[in-house]
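Hi U.,

Before I forget, here's the chain from the pilot set. I'm dumping it here mostly so it's searchable later in email.
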Amino acid sequence: MKDYDFLILGGGSAGYNGAAAACDLGLRVALVEGGDELGGLCILRGCMPSKTLLESANRHLVLRRAAEFGLRAGPTAVHGAEIIARKERLVAEFAKHRAKQLQSGRFDLLRGWAAFVDPHTVEVRAADGSSRQVTAETFLLATGSHLKIVPLAGLEETGYLTSDGVLSSAHIPRSVIILGGGAVAMEYAHYYEALGTEVTVIQRSAQLLKDMDGDVAEALARAFRKRGMTIHCHTALVRAEPVEGGLKRVVFQQADRTLSAEAEEIVYALGREPRTEELRLERAGMEMTRHRLKVAPTQQTGVLHIFAAGDIAGPYEIVHIAIQQAEVAARNANRLVKALASHGAVRPLEETDYRLRLFAVFSSPEVAMVGMTERELESQAIAYNVACYPFDDHGKSMVQGETEGFVKLLASEATGEIIGGAVIGPHASELIHEIAVAMRFRATARDLAQIPHYHPTLSEIWTYPAEELTRKAV
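Structure:
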């Protein structure tokens, strides 16, 4: 008999929720975590600390605009140390709660770093240098990700902040260059500009948020430029170098031109990659493709009793999806363990459903989407209808002074069922959930149009594209 039925490597959101789900199914469970602090990426260096900083930025942006509403709030001042101190207090509270969950006794918590010895055995190395071997029938890999550093000549010598470093930097620079155009880059561009920093964004892809539809990405770029940011897309980074006056320069190519930008600080936000180096996956017979595991919809790796979830698994590095994947893995592991114990056949395994995939960027304006994009529908030759409605023609958003952006609904041409939605505008991360609920119950655009919406609210903006799609379906 193995030591455990289900052994989880990694104590973040995927790891903890996978452990909890497996315990509920009656499995013998242990979780291995080697980090100095318990909590995982989301709590310690991701979602919660970054959104805490962004809330300070949002409040300052409101103060900057007070005169639009007949108010006077000046003079305002930004105290970076106090922003960071508030973040640290909140993160400590979140981490304390997660540590309590991990140490609750429902499952064994093994402190240390794990590496495979063979497909059913790992060696767990503790901080004091001691080690032990642990065996399990099934595994869940949930070790998360770390910063991906793309080589750029002169960057190390010039100096820069990583996306993690921003979370602990109390200094609010006069100017920054943001390298990257993904969600983290856009949130930090918003953060610094809202606090009064001059911001330049250099994005390698042809648009910001490269996986979003072009109309959404362009609306965000337009809104950022209106706030005074400089946006460069479709670039190739050449080098970084220090210049006189304590500034830093980034040189880049755009089309056939060589351009440069100078700022007090460079923020490196070019993404993350799965954390797999210390796992010795080859000893368990697993293969990697470009630093990423091959993972099936059942969350199984190439070794069928070893599952993966979260950033290490992809295809989306989003917390709620990581939790969903981990819970699917736990249920599937339970089926394998039960079949082994009874010497019977394995029940069909569950697959993770990405139909209701949600994504949000907490910039200003916010960006959010659910389901499929127009780009995905076109690539899969799925016939659809689309309808949009702008916030600058919507009563409640006009009252709030939040008129950037629009909402977009996508519906099947054949059935009228809603198959996707996107928002760029006020409270997009909240508004998108109305479409997620509608899609959960496979509502049509007609169904959505017929649901009463209180007036005046931001939510009622969805009724306008729903009504347009209903007319198209007639």
